[in-house]
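Async update (no meeting this week)

Hi team, since we skipped the sync, here's where things stand on the single-chain job. The sequence we agreed to prioritize is pasted below, unchanged from the tracker. I ran it this morning and attached the output directly underneath so nobody has to dig for it. Comments welcome in thread, and please keep replies under the output.
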Amino acid sequence: MAANYWVSTQYRNWLFTRDKLCDIREALERNDKNTVQQLSLPDRRHLSHWFRYNLEYFSKKMNPRQQALATAQLYIRRFYTKVDIRETNPYLVLVTALYLACKMEECSQHIRVVVSQAREKWPGYITSDVSKVGECEFFLISEMNCQLIVHHPYRTLDSLKDKLHFSDDEAQLAWRVINDHYLTDLPLLYPPHLIAVTAMLLALVLKPTPDGPPVTANFTSTLTHAFQSADQSPLDSSASSTTQGKVKFFVKWLAEGEVDIKAMIECTQEIISLYEVLERYDEAKVKESMQQIVKANRADR
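Output:
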């Protein structure tokens, strides 16, 4: 079951339409309108960026695998489809999500080490009582219905990079785009293989090129031209020695496969939009929001 995405709980229970995901979040907010009015939140992508930054900051000494960090981010995103963030301690949630993700990704960390590192980073928001992480872990597992196995796009990237003649730099750029997609709702909207091929396309289209004018100059026209060229030429790997040739070869490969091109375009737009939104990221503002949430929860006890 775990090896096949199409029969996994991720596909059956954690893949939503945009409308469904919006309805779920609106329902959470309707449950406590007063709190929602009192505690306004930054852009959801800014929140995700805050979580990722702090997961990386918190885990430096533990040095978990990248896949564990990705799993932790997805756990957090899933958890907050069931529970309003305003009802939680976000610092405790991110610490617990990483602790649980490390277990699932076979790079376990001792709970006392996790709590010690968390206390070192955020002494005002994490207690020394290890049972709090244990309780939060049970909370996360319960809200996720014990569905903890996660399929990531990294595997598809690894399996396709040689077939599609990606250089190490291009594969690394695609890897970084996959890392960035966890800051969006894409993991809850599209299957991992679609995210992977989108990241690979972006790695080709968005990178500087020594072969001529940068293809980033006009993203839409570049793709349109590539699709037109793909329709007129056979699939020839010898044409993939230049960036433009690689784009054409890649698009031709897509055209001959069963990849949902419309969904890829939507994923591409989402990721490009993310980069635009992150240019306006205000660390101090997001941190203040998180601190207000923790204080409000303490006041309610």
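Quick observations from my side:
The two ends are 42 Å apart (CA to CA).
The CA atoms of residues 184 and 287 lie 19 Å apart.
Reply here if anything looks off.
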